[in-house]
């Protein structure tokens, strides 16, 4: 009985230690990130109906800034800004500490951390006047 109790205690301590280490490895992403967004768009109307970060064109590139203002563990809150407008976003860092899953006010995107200072995002967005996919490479600004 004592051996079983000892083994169970050891297993619980090992699990707790591993869990604490994983939590401490969560990257701190608070700050300003900047880069470029390349996009492809299906135009459903002759002229845009709502706001968009991208011009009403089938293909293009725009500069983009993301600022994560708040981080609580794996959860992030911030803004995404282009020269056209800003919108709120929220994200969660996956348990592997390498992937982010985000949503802004009308789209979803997934990001992969590439080192400590770079994120590559893939964006998906569907509205009444367009559908868009894009890739963004962002670097952390000091």
UniProtKB/TrEMBL annotation:
Signal sequence span is 1-22
State the UniProt keywords alphabetically.
Answer: Signal
Query: What name does this protein carry?
Result: Lipocalin-like domain-containing protein
Q: Which organism is it from?
A: Candidatus Thiodictyon syntrophicum
């Amino acid at each position: 009985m004592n051996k079983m109790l000892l083994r169970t205690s050891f297993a619980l301590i090992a699990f707790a230690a591993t869990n604490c280490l994983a939590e401490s490895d969560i990257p701190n992403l608070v700050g300003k990130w900047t880069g470029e967004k390349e996009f492809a768009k299906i135009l459903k109307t002759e002229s845009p109906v709502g706001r968009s970060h991208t011009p009403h064109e089938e293909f293009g590139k725009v500069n983009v800034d993301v600022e994560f203002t708040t981080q609580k563990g794996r959860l992030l809150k911030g803004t995404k800004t282009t020269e056209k407008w800003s919108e709120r976003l929220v994200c969660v860092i996956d348990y592997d500490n390498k992937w982010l899953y985000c949503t802004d006010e009308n789209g979803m995107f997934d990001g992969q951390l590439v080192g400590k200072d770079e994120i590559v995002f893939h964006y998906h967005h569907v509205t009444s006047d367009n559908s868009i996919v894009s890739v963004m490479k962002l670097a952390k600004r000091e």
